Amino acid sequence: MVPRSIPLDARHEARPKPALVRFRELFSDGMGFPALMVAPALLTLAVVIGFPIVKGLILSFQMIKLTSPATGGDFTLYNYVKMFSDKNVLASVWRSCVYMSGSVLGATFVGLIAALLTRRAFMGRSLFRTFFILPWAIPAVATTLVWGVMYDANFGVMNRIVQLLPGINSNIEWLIDRDYVLGSLIAVQIWGDFPVAYLFLLAGLQAIPEELYEAANVDGANGWQQFWHITAPQLRYIVTVTIILLGILSFRSFAVIHILTGGGPNRRTETLVIQTYNAAFRSFDFSYGAALGILSLIFSVVIVALYIRLTLGREMRGAAAT
Amino acid sequence: MAEVNISNVRKAYGSLEIMHGIDIDVAAGEFVVLVGPSGCGKSTLLRMIAGLEDISSGTISIAGRVVNDLQPRDRDIAMVFQNYALYPHMTVAENMSFSLRLQRLGQEQIRERVARAADILDLSQLLERYPRQLSGGQRQRVAMGRAIVRNPQVFLFDEPLSNLDAELRVSMRAQIKELHQRLGTTMIYVTHDQIEAMTMADKIVVMRGGRIEQMGCPLDLYDNPANRFVAGFLGSPAMNFLAGSVDGDGFTSKSGVKVALPANYGAMQGRQVLLGVRPEHIEIVSKDRPDAIVANVALIEPTGLDTLVVARAGQEEVTVSYRGRMDVRVGETVGLLRDPGHLHLFDQSTLARIQPADQQKSMA
């Protein structure tokens, strides 16, 4: 006889489970399914980023030099010993820091001014905003080549502009003169990077409630005091994030220096990235280049770690601005 | 403490005028409430007094000094904003002392003034906290504290209680009124809440569409509204309005409900009017009384203190407010008896209040 009533649990078990439930039960330990979902991304990262890093690391402990066939793949610390005793490495690290600081501070400053100028509504604001973002939209190689022409000592427009100032009559060798060359490159980097700062800071400025300025105005603050007491503290976090992001961008900047000077004259503009390139692809000392590359990687990781610490820390604490 | 004079103030965006010649005189130490529905221009007017909005024409003067071209910081005013506008990166003490630090007062003097304001507003325990660590009511008190430390000539409040819950709003309302009595400073207060306006103001300015509809003492406006808008805006529940005409028997609504009028309305035979009666001026009586209007109870809303009854007489719907509990049921037929001393008639075309004949005479 069929029972008149079936226990609820039994009825439930008798019914076939949905396909998704059965599929998920395959990963009943709780980790398998998420791991499967993340696997494609991890695999891509491993191939595109992980493999070159590991290959570079191995290469840096070998002696692979295209111009010396006698060298080989045995383990050696030679490249690292050479790197730490090479005065040029210290100099290029210093130059990288100067280049990075100059371009980051410059781009942040120019971006802030541009953001402040286009923050409030006025006729033609959209046009100005487009204009300020334009340097970012044009390929860096094309603009750098144009800057090269502008910097030309004989027929470049930079000398024409500078010579409008009183007391300057002779042509300046922007990309050769040791006093000007690094500054000239930093100016190009600033021009290329400031739109990033502009966008970040404009977003930051627009997130500051207008009422704070009105309250400060009623409280007696003039324009400068409003900037100092309201805008600056409210922008502090976004400025820090911008500086770190621009730091990453400019530290690994290659196109500007490579195209305009290639690290010259006489290594005056040779940053760590350029030195790495020159070692690997001009001297064809791949292992030494790889060791320099590892050094660059360490610097980049430090900056990125700072960035992650800052942004994650803020997320954990919740929005600090409220 | 200072008087504020607003004279023929207009505001226009291009050809679109949104404030149409506002005239208000605020006496020194007076508590004036600007009240009206959203978009009536009350906040704009307050911001024009503060200097946060330009005026297109007219003059605003504070303590006898025309301030049209002065920056807000030079007007010697303090303002409490709707969203408080506390500086999020400053502690309560820093928020309150900001204006004093800008004035470069001495540390001791700043500390003393902040402590005094904190004491008045019960903020002494919260001085080291940041705004994000405070509740809505505490933030509101800090915003007031920031205003009172400056000892300004005029306080401006822009809907300061609208973000608080009902209970807190009632207690803050009392605190602001107490603060006014304690400081005696001129206060101009914007709200859309007519109960706030009625309970707090020395003088109410009812605004609509960039114009002043009526200005005066709260109870005066309540008892003698200048037009249908003011009559309907002030009072909760709102005044009942019946459209109809005056004839030999008194008032007859469009659906035939008849209401006897006092003799002093007799000269208005044939005139198309709106009859206005406040809910508390109608009594529910037996349907058999000959002078009562017969109506059916459609809805009963007991609030505890009062009982609101919505009754239908013909096609007219009338709200009755009764102080206490009432033993009526939905669907029951009752009689409605109006208080003849509290009837209001409004002209149907102009919507202005029609003065009874004896009042017209006494006014003349």
SSE class of chain B? alpha+beta
Beta-strand fraction estimate of chain B: 25-35%
Q: What is the residue-averaged pLDDT of chain B?
A: 91
CATH superfamily of the largest domain in chain B: P-loop containing nucleotide triphosphate hydrolases
Proportion of residues in helical segments of chain A: over 70%
Number of domains of chain B: 2
CATH domain class name of the largest domain in chain A: Mainly Alpha
Number of helices of chain B: 9
Strand order of the largest sheet of chain B: 6-7-8-3-9-10
**Overall 3D form of chain B:** elongated
What is the succession of H and E elements of chain A?
HHHHHHHHHHHHHH
What percent of the residues of chain B sit in helical stretches (DSSP H or I)? 25-40%
Rounded to an integer in angstroms, the radius of gyration calculated over CA atoms of chain B is: 25 Å
Largest sheet of chain A: none
Rounded to the nearest angstrom, the distance between the terminal CA atoms of chain A is: 70 Å
Strand residue content of chain A: under 5%
Distance between the termini of chain B: 37 Å
Number of domains of chain A: 2
With helices defined by DSSP (H or I, 4 residues minimum), what is the helix count of chain A?
14
- The gyration radius over C-alpha positions of chain A equals 28 Å
Characterize the largest beta sheet of chain B: strand count, sense, and whether it forms a barrel.
Answer: 6 strands, mixed
If you had to describe this structure to a student in words, what would you say it looks like?
Chain A has 322 residues and is mainly alpha-helical. Chain A has two domains: 52 residues, no CATH class; 239 residues, MetI-like fold, CATH 1.10.3720.10. The longest helix of chain A is centred in the last third of the chain and has 32 residues. Chain A is flat. The N terminus of chain A is likely disordered. With 364 residues, chain B is α+β, with helices and mostly antiparallel strands. Chain B has two domains: 229 residues, Rossmann fold (3-Layer(aba) Sandwich), CATH 3.40.50; 124 residues, Beta Barrel (OB fold (Dihydrolipoamide Acetyltransferase, E2P)). Helices cover 25% and strands 34% of the residues of chain B. Chain B contains nine helices and 21 strands. In chain B, helix 5 links the parallel strand 7 and strand 8. The two termini of chain B are 37 Å apart. The interface between A and B is medium-sized, with 20 and 24 residues.
